[in-house]
């Protein structure tokens, strides 16, 4: 199948986040909480519009940082949802959105 | 934009340090912050009249008590009016006018969203928006505070601004409106 022409190809934003928590967390814990929060705030309809991808290969356990790929129109909704995240399992913590970029290279 | 939170005046140094890392500006400590929580008007009135030097924050109670609180000169902030109200935002046009007249800010506490159900969360965010609109119409001061108990109750101010923006709440509630309260202290 041929790739869509650039004009009608969806535009994405890469959101880099920083996990602030009492202890260092595995990617599986972080991704679970992020999906729960996004689902609670945005609902299934908006989640499907956003084409959200929480990127495993970009997660850095040492620095507790990661990247979420999202459609450009949903960028602010995703950041708003992440602000409401208030803990990871039984640990207190929050997510800080550090940077938003159009390319992964610039994050 | 310079993000400020008056409630950071009263927290431990470790929390202040984290707040600065996240991008908050700690207000200069001209006066300390005092939070009053009392259900009986006679007791509350005595406490209000006895404290003149502090920035006085009174936790909102029922509608009638809030009306009396907003009639006081010494009070600077009425905190979380939606919390003790029965299925309403706790502020109507009468209270908003009173708050504007006495220069009392209506404050909402972000930390209440942490441990509540989805239904309560959605209602609370709606009440914030409603109170923000009322305060805007009657020129009352409206602020949002993180009121952090520990460093994990803090949020990045820019992220918080985006959340408020999504709910049509002005971002000034995290910045300019907080400064207005500090400036009114000098008068």
Q: How would you explain this protein's 3D organization?
A:
The complex is a heterodimer of chains A (107) and B (187). Chain A is of the alpha+beta class. Chain A has one domain: 2-Layer Sandwich (Alpha-Beta Plaits). Chain A is 31% helix and 36% strand. Chain A has helices at residues 27-50, 75-83; strands at 12-21, 53-60, 65-71, 87-88, 91-101. In chain A, strands 2-3-1-5-4 form a 5-stranded antiparallel beta sheet. In chain A, strand 2 (53-60) and strand 3 (65-71) form a beta hairpin. Chain A is globular. With 187 residues, chain B is α/β, with parallel strands linked by helices. Chain B has a single domain (3-185), classed as TIM Barrel. In chain B, 41% of the residues lie in helices and 13% in strands. Chain B has 7 helices and 7 strands. Chain B has helices spanning 13-22, 41-50, 63-69, 93-102, 118-137, 157-166, 176-185, and strands spanning 3-4, 24-25, 33-36, 55-59, 77-79, 105-109, 142-145. Chain B has a 5-stranded parallel beta sheet with strand order 3-4-5-6-7, sandwiched between helices. In chain B, strand 3, helix 2 (41-50) and strand 4 form a beta-alpha-beta unit. Chain A binds chain B through residues 20-22, 40, 76-77, 79-80, 82-84, 86-87, 92-94, 96-97, and chain B through 22, 113-115, 118, 121, 150-156, 158-160, 162-163, 165-166.
Please tag this protein with its features.
heterodimer, A: alpha+beta, Alpha-Beta Plaits, 5-stranded antiparallel β-sheet, 2 helices, globular, B: 187 residues, alpha/beta, TIM Barrel, 5-stranded parallel β-sheet, two-stranded parallel ribbon, 7 helices
Compose a concise summary of this entry.
The complex is a heterodimer of chains A (107) and B (187). Chain A has 107 residues and is of the alpha+beta class. Helix content of chain A is 31%, strand content 36%.
């Amino acid at each position: 199948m041929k790739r869509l022409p650039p004009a009608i190809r969806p535009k994405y934003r890469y959101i880099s986040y920083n996990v602030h928590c009492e202890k260092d967390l595995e990617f599986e814990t972080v991704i679970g909480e992020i999906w729960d929060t996004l689902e609670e705030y945005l609902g299934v309809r908006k989640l499907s519009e956003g084409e959200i991808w929480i990127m495993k290969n970009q997660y850095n356990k040492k620095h507790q940082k990661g990247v979420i790929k999202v459609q450009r129109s949903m960028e602010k909704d995703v950041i708003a949802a992440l602000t409401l995240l208030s803990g990871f399992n039984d640990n207190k913590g929050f997510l800080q959105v550090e940077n938003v970029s159009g390319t992964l290279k610039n994050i | 934009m310079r993000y400020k939170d008056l409630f950071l005046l009263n927290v431990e140094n470790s929390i202040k340090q984290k707040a600065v890392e996240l991008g908050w500006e700690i207000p200069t400590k001209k006066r300390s912050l005092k939070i009053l929580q009392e259900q009986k008007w006679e007791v509350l009135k005595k406490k209000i009249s006895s404290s003149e030097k502090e920035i006085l924050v009174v936790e909102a109670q029922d509608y009638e008590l809030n009306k009396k609180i907003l009639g006081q000169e010494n009070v600077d902030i009425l905190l979380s009016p939606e919390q003790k109200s029965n299925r309403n935002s706790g502020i109507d046009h009468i209270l908003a006018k009173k708050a504007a007249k006495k220069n009392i800010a209506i404050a909402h506490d972000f930390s209440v969203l942490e441990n509540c159900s989805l239904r309560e969360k959605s209602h609370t965010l709606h009440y914030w928006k409603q109170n923000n609109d009322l305060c805007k119409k009657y020129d009352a001061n409206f602020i949002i505070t993180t009121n952090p108990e520990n460093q994990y109750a803090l949020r990045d101010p820019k992220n918080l601004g985006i959340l408020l923006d999504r709910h049509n709440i002005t971002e000034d509630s995290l910045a300019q409106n907080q400064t207005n309260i500090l400036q009114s202290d000098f008068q």
